[in-house]
């Protein structure tokens, strides 16, 4: 195998496919490697941890077809430190040579036969506009759990809602829902649970093309977008019944500028040295007072004008969770609806009905 | 309360480690003269405590009852009386607190005492220790061993060496001479695994550990253990005695009949988690780390833990986590059978502020609170889970710090 391409092109495909490579390598050292395959001028780079497989494709200047398996991190590190310019990669019997200008690296390769045979993606595909899917993913994925001890919560539920699609994620502290009306992907009543990690990577690459093709199988899902294909194992199990958690009507409603609230939370949070230090919102008729107090450190306080309908009350939130919700909402104004300081608060955009964020408060008394 | 008493570097041996001998068994021998001088085992299914006469036959705490009776057929087995032990412990701690205000309780039957600065009032540390042992014997009727040294670590080693019913003062300047001939297992933190690693390399005494370079120990045992042992072997332990230190964890454990199945263990676990979480809520504490301890039919032990994203006091969350840990140990359990299960919640913090959880599983926090109130008013057996209907709740004992 031998080809030439711009350093940035190679860095991009190595980086993208490398996202699926498990950091630990695990029981199979070959999984800490990437598989490179060149046919004509098409280079395909594949990384996998067997749950998630990412293949990135690039057009290069090919001289000799072939394949090679090289250590992912080392290859990415090498390409990153190279000067910009045309890089050449040539694979011999047990070594790959990476050359750019007068810099040359020889990297030991692993025989291609040792790389595991990866599953074929499901056949049937549906094409969606990638922009709206990427936006929906960015709004929802952050609410999925990173705690592997509850596998179901590490997934994003993709289900049908009316004539469209719905994405739901929760880590049990907050819940994010985004509807994509008019988007059909699933059969009526069908739903799948896709790992957060796969969708995070999908959101990262979704801007590469205007369309994304989604293929759903019984156990796997595959996404193709702009030369990148992701295949992931689906999570098995029942997503918790989330509908009953969403209150129909809440007695107290704060309406406030989105950016203003986000900036104020960000400022007040500065004194919170520990992630468990909450930001308090004192809600009153013509505004909201934000404050944070960290023992032995200090306090922060900020007043914001806002419209508030309801009883005066104070409620506290984890600042990161609150900021994630405000960031995920779109539009100029948002509403925050509550019952009391111990019940879930509902955050959504004033003029966008498709997104909602439910957040449990922090109990402070 | 958590009070840190700053103190000047210590040249004098002023720290006492006071440790009741074979505590439960000693209380039984105190209360029943027929048991005195005879091998006594507290606890039938599993040995909770053994008198020194029983220990002479090779009986150890946490040994299975059948094995204990095999080793010493003449041993007298008595049922544990937890309330008597709690009462005795309180009486002993009153004596500690009469000795010095600087008392750091380690568990129901041991504590560190700092007697620095009491020389003119009460005499030398050695005289204070002699007096304390006499008062505990006279007023509470229990034997207690005291180690006296300049660091907490060394005081604990000294009491371990002096047991039973003894007193050992490690005079300033003689620390290394005392420490170095001791076997490595005397060092805090050297369990069977570390001990084997050291002994495989021909290192059997504390002195031999002290002779190694810190880097060599780190390479052998990892950074945390390596540095820890290096410091201890050179008697470096700067920790002061901390008054009124709060518990670092809340837990409970329960011995099971030989070869308990996964279902039996799960039932016991549910009861333990109920109890631990109720104690958490009563103490107005929340914790992040759930630890499951298992002991198997062949005495092998397993400890599994998981740290949650946020601290909790919710029964459902802790139970869910503990069950996941248990299912990870399923193959071992099926193979060997389980003889003891324990669960502890650590990483404790005050119950406020605490991140609340969505009622994803329809188990609202209100349910926990309602159950607590019922049990508070009508007793701990007033409400029970369906899995425990018609079952003996069994004996649970507070889990002592390691």
Q: How would you explain this protein's 3D organization?
A:
The complex is a heterodimer of chains A (365) and B (402). Chain A has six helices and 27 strands. With 365 residues, chain A is an alpha+beta fold. In chain A, strands 14-11-12-13-26-25-24-18-22 form a nine-stranded antiparallel beta sheet. In chain A, strands 6-2-3-4-17-16-15-10 form an eight-stranded antiparallel beta sheet. In chain A, a hairpin with a 2-residue loop joins strand 8 (95-100) and strand 9 (103-108). In chain A, helix 3 (130-140) packs across helix 4 (196-205). Chain B is of the alpha+beta class. Among the domains of chain B are: 23-83, MutS, DNA mismatch repair protein, domain I (3-Layer(aba) Sandwich); 180-233, DNA polymerase, domain 1, CATH 1.10.150.20; 249-388, Dna Ligase, domain 1 (2-Layer Sandwich). Chain B is built from 16 helices and 15 strands. In chain B, a hairpin with a 4-residue loop joins strand 10 (285-296) and strand 11 (301-312). The radius of gyration of chain B is 22 Å and the shape is globular. Chain B starts with 14 loop residues before the first strand and ends with a strand. The interface between A and B is medium-sized, with 30 and 21 residues. Strand 27 (362-363) of chain A pairs antiparallel with strand 14 (354-355) of chain B.
Q: How would you briefly describe this protein structure?
A:
The complex is a heterodimer of chains A (365) and B (402). Chain A is α+β, with helices and mostly antiparallel strands and 365 residues long.
Mean pLDDT of chain A: 91
The first-to-last residue Cα distance of chain A is 66 Å
Class from helix and strand fractions of chain B: alpha+beta
Q: Averaged pLDDT of chain B, please?
A: 83
- CATH class of the domain at 249-388 in chain B, anyone? Alpha Beta
User: Which stretches of chain B are poorly predicted, pLDDT < 50 over at least 5 residues?
Assistant: 1-10, 395-402
> How many helices of chain A?
6
* Alpha-carbon distance between the two ends of chain B: 22 Å
